[in-house]
Design brief:
This protein is of the alpha+beta class and 157 residues long. It contains 4 helices and 7 strands, in the order βαββααββαββ. It is an enzyme of class 4 (lyase).
């Protein structure tokens, strides 16, 4: 079986994918991160209105995730720098965890999966940072792509 990796150039060296010949289409991707806090910590933070000495926990995570999604091309070496048209982050409070969803969209020649993944990941890391004074047992359980559309193939988990 011969597998071709998209970020390996003809000379077997790393390289950015040439998207010059691709068509501009609407690209959208949704990623999710789960942050396990435990039931006691969820109750504690809810009682505090999701605020602590550093500020609003959920609001800060949304801002950080959005900023990170916009900087994905600076963080991941082979990602194209993209001007996102939309980045929406939602945080759902579950019984023991927080579910972070990041949806990124634009019209472009390349997809926005990495932007959505970075947005969700950095929001999760920000929650850890904002909450670590209460517990070092917080676990970022997963970050995964939920769906993507546009381009030559769509995906849904």
């Amino acid at each position: 079986m011969n597998i071709e990796f998209s970020h390996v150039a003809d000379n077997d060296q790393p390289g950015m994918v040439d998207v010059g010949a691709k068509k501009i289409t609407v690209r959208e991707a949704e990623a999710q991160s789960i942050v396990w806090l435990g039931k006691e910590n969820i109750e504690l933070f809810e009682k505090a209105g999701w605020e602590n000495k550093k500020g609003g926990i959920l609001q800060t995570a949304i801002i950080a995730g959005t900023m990170a999604a916009k900087k994905t091309g600076d963080l991941i070496p082979m990602c194209h720098p993209l001007g996102l048209e939309s980045c929406k982050i939602n945080i759902d409070v579950l019984e023991e965890s927080l579910k972070i969803t990041c949806i990124c969209r634009l019209e472009a020649k390349t997809g926005v999966e990495m932007e959505a993944m970075v947005g969700a990941s950095v929001a999760a890391l920000t929650i850890y940072d904002m909450c670590k004074s209460v517990s070092k047992g917080i676990v970022i359980q997963e970050t995964k792509l939920i769906r993507k559309s546009g381009g030559k193939s769509d995906f849904k988990a």
